[in-house]
Design goal:
This protein is mainly alpha-helical. α1 packs antiparallel against α4. Helices cover 70% and strands 0% of the residues. The protein is elongated, with a radius of gyration of 16 Å. It has five helices and no strands. It starts with 13 loop residues before the first helix and ends with a helix.
């Protein structure tokens, strides 16, 4: 997949650092289904829809907190929304329990988004100074 989001990010002020932190927290656990998954694709994309709503809230709050929003940070948020929207669009209305073939297709779509989400998580963690927290998060599964 072509990488449209910035490959580096430097928070310009406290508002951007806070928005980056919020995005990092929101993005951390929303890629894969929880243990409560009901076996349908529509249930898998619920957390992804929540992620889109959270991205919208973060972007709106950030834009309201600064005079000149960083285009770099806005592109990170918009890239995530654009990337996950494809998965949502494909699977949101699919209420039929998945068979093995469709599970593989869904998994491939989720894995594509997860790869991009990992890049953004790494970018945010490195630039925000949270690499130690990111490592702990992965180690404990939280």
């Amino acid at each position: 997949m072509f990488w449209f989001a910035p490959v580096s990010w430097t928070p310009h002020d406290e508002a951007e650092l806070i928005a980056g932190w919020r995005l990092w927290l929101e993005l951390g656990d929303r890629t894969w289904p929880s243990a409560a998954w009901d076996g349908t694709a529509a249930d898998v994309v619920k957390p992804l829809r929540e992620l889109v709503a959270a991205c919208d809230q973060i972007e709106t709050g950030y834009r309201g907190a600064v005079d000149e929003p960083s285009e770099e940070f806005i592109r990170i948020i918009q890239f995530l929304v654009w990337t996950v929207s494809t998965v949502i669009e494909l699977w949101a209305d699919d209420e039929v329990p998945l068979d093995a073939e469709r599970i593989a297709l869904l998994h491939a779509d989720l894995a594509g988004f997860a790869e991009q989400a990992e890049r953004v998580l790494e970018l945010l963690a490195v630039s925000g100074g949270w690499t130690g927290l990111a490592a702990e998060h992965r180690r404990t599964g939280r």
